[in-house]
Structure formats: C-alpha cells, structure tokens
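User: Let's play a game. I give you a shape written as tokens, and you guess the letters that built it. Ready? Here's round one.
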C-alpha cells in the first residue's frame, strides 16, 4: 500500500487548492482514475527559487505543481529498472533506509489524490475499496522525490521520480488493510514541504481525525486491471459483486 490511486484534477485546480503555481508547463498527464506504478503523476513541491546562475534565494519559497514519475529512483542508481518496486516508502524507516533517507531529509512532496484503492481479503477474492474524503477535496499523500540523470550520448536529461509514504492503518482502515498512505492534513503541508526542515519525524504519524472522516466505498473489480480507466471506477457498487479478481500491487514497500 499504496499501489493504485485516482488523480482527477488538472494542475490549475490543484494549484488553487494547494496555494501553489502550475509548474507543469502544459505537460500534465491528464485525469487518471487508475494510477499505477511508473505512470506520470502530479506532485506539489516547495523550493527556493534560483537565479540565472543557479543560486537559490534563501529568503523566498515557491510552491508549485510538478510532473513526476511514480516509483523512486535514487540519484545513485545505475538505472531505472527498480522503480516499480519503490512506489512506497515505509514511514518507520524512511529516515534511515539508504534508498530514501536523502530524499526524506531534503526532497519531500505532497501527492494529491481524489482517493486511493485498497483490496480487502475475502473468501476466494479481494474486494476493492475506494478510500476518499467523501467530497471534492483532494487527499495530500506524503511523498518524497529524487532526480536521476539519464545519459544519452552527450546529453543528460533529468528523470524526476517519487514515492508515497505508508504507515500502519488506523481506525476503520484496519478492516481493509494493515497499511495505508500517510495522508497529511492542511496544517502539516507547509512543514512537510519546507526544504529547510531536515528532520520531519514529528510529521510521520497519521492524523486520526482526518482518517476517521474518510469514506470507504466498495467499487467494481474492474479497477483490478490497469486497462480500465474511467470515472465509473470510483462509483460505489453493492458488496458481493461477482467478478474475476486480479493480483494487486499493494504489498510493494
């Protein structure tokens, strides 16, 4: 967990919601009701703007919506082949695990979502749920990001990747799965994004009030296949709907 989620708002709407600017330069991935590992996603970052010589302004911060690829690739990795296995970072070890600790200290982000999908074990199949705020607001999943440089001849191209932090499930979430994304309330957004805060451990606990307010909505097993991608995936269905289950990716962390 988290292995699938929905991202339905355009960068302009997210910029307004997260008090940011649209930094996608028209290259946004578009609405996605079945976001899967290695897809291009939208994330919110906060950085010190740099001048023409690359020098950051320590007195100014700019929050922006950016495009990243889901599946963290550390800057020291030889290639991007392990990205699909690094979509999640456990909050319990993110500050110490070599693959994540540098990003956790220096490059944190928020990954907006309309909600995420989780599969509840059952007799012979798993029932998918769409976990969401119950209104039009976005969830802010805590994330980290990294820059990996793609070398092609004499050209170096940055590949910006990210991972979602996960934590032990609490409240009603425990009835569906033992893990959940670390979802941050608005009063933690600034601290989480602050590039000058290098020790975010006080922000790594889930917020019970936020989690208790989330809606657990049973949805169609069509979401099991990433080939399906339309608004009906988030519609509620009656429990017991008979469809062929497919493997999920939620144990990757």
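Assistant: Ready! My guess for every position:
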């Amino acid at each position: 967990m988290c292995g699938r989620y929905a991202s339905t708002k355009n960068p302009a709407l997210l910029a307004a919601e997260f008090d940011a600017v649209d930094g996608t330069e028209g290259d946004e991935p578009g609405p996605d009701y079945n976001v899967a590992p290695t897809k291009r996603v939208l994330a919110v970052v906060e950085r010190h703007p740099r001048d023409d010589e690359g020098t950051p302004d320590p007195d100014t911060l700019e929050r922006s919506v950016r495009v990243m690829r889901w599946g963290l690739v550390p800057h020291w990795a030889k290639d991007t082949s392990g990205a699909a296995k690094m979509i999640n970072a456990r909050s319990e070890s993110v500050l110490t695990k070599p693959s994540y600790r540098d990003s956790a200290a220096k490059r944190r982000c928020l990954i907006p979502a309309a909600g995420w999908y989780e599969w509840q074990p059952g007799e012979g199949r798993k029932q998918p749920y769409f976990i969401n705020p119950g209104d039009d607001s976005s969830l802010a999943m805590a994330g980290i990001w990294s820059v990996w440089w793609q070398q092609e001849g004499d050209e170096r191209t940055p590949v910006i990747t990210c991972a979602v932090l996960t934590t032990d499930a609490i409240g009603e979430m425990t009835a569906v799965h033992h893990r959940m994304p670390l979802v941050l309330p608005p009063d933690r957004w600034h601290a989480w994004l602050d590039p000058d805060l290098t020790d975010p451990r006080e922000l790594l606990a889930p917020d019970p009030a936020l989690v208790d307010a989330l809606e657990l909505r049973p949805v169609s097993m069509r979401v099991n296949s990433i080939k399906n991608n339309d608004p009906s995936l988030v519609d509620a269905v009656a429990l017991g709907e008979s469809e062929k289950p497919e493997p999920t990716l939620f144990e990757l962390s």
